[in-house]
């Protein structure tokens, strides 16, 4: 694993966010896209409010994406989330996971182009991957999953999650406030890592686990023709 060192800072005027890393607190001010269970946009809401379990338990649901980036060898870029993260700190997960924002470019739904723009933005912010290395037409939007998962007693996720695949050789310069470590893995290496994680209590994000168990390996086996597997009309309830 390539490891990135990070510096902790603290405090916020919001009691919910007191004691957390200052940059992660700032990012909680971003405005996500609230959706209904059919993924129709219904309004804006702060990232903080979208991730509070008290709101999730009342049905608050937002749009998200999960990127799976493979190199030319067919290896998956895996990351371990930074310990500074407010939700699922230190968890192993897919290449990049985040949310489109309630702004014009990322609200655009035709061809999931708004989600793809958000994925470009976050790949650069988290992993230092420049947008010209991951052009919009390189992303394959495969399907959506709807899932809910607590991170702890206070925070969690409730998302309609767009799954995006792409195969590109890129330059990674990880942001240590976002990414604790990263590496490329073959299928066998990922299976071993996840088996070891389960045996040793190493944390794995719930959406990554769901996608691995439901879709990942059969799509990975068809990586060169994965666009033909696209199913944009379906929302899988997991």
Automatic annotation (TrEMBL):
Biological processes per GO annotation: dimethylallyl diphosphate biosynthetic process; isopentenyl diphosphate biosynthetic process; steroid biosynthetic process
Superkingdom, taxonomy of origin: Eukaryota
Cofactor(s) required for function per UniProt: Mg(2+)
Domain named Nudix hydrolase: residues: 60-210
Signal peptide: none
Pathway: Isoprenoid biosynthesis; dimethylallyl diphosphate biosynthesis; dimethylallyl diphosphate from isopentenyl diphosphate: step 1/1
EC nos: 5.3.3.2
Name of a matching Pfam family: NUDIX
Annotated InterPro entries: IsopentenylPP_isomerase_typ1 (IPR011876), NUDIX_hydrolase-like_dom_sf (IPR015797), NUDIX_hydrolase_dom (IPR000086)
GO annotation, cellular component aspect: cytoplasm
EC class of the enzyme, as a word: isomerase
One term of GO molecular function: isopentenyl-diphosphate delta-isomerase activity
Keyword terms: Isomerase, Isoprene biosynthesis, Lipid biosynthesis, Lipid metabolism, Magnesium, Metal-binding, Steroid biosynthesis
Alphabetized PROSITE patterns for the sequence: NUDIX
Classification via PANTHER family: ISOPENTENYL-DIPHOSPHATE DELTA-ISOMERASE
Similarity comment: family membership: Belongs to the IPP isomerase type 1 family.
Name of the protein this chain belongs to: isopentenyl-diphosphate Delta-isomerase
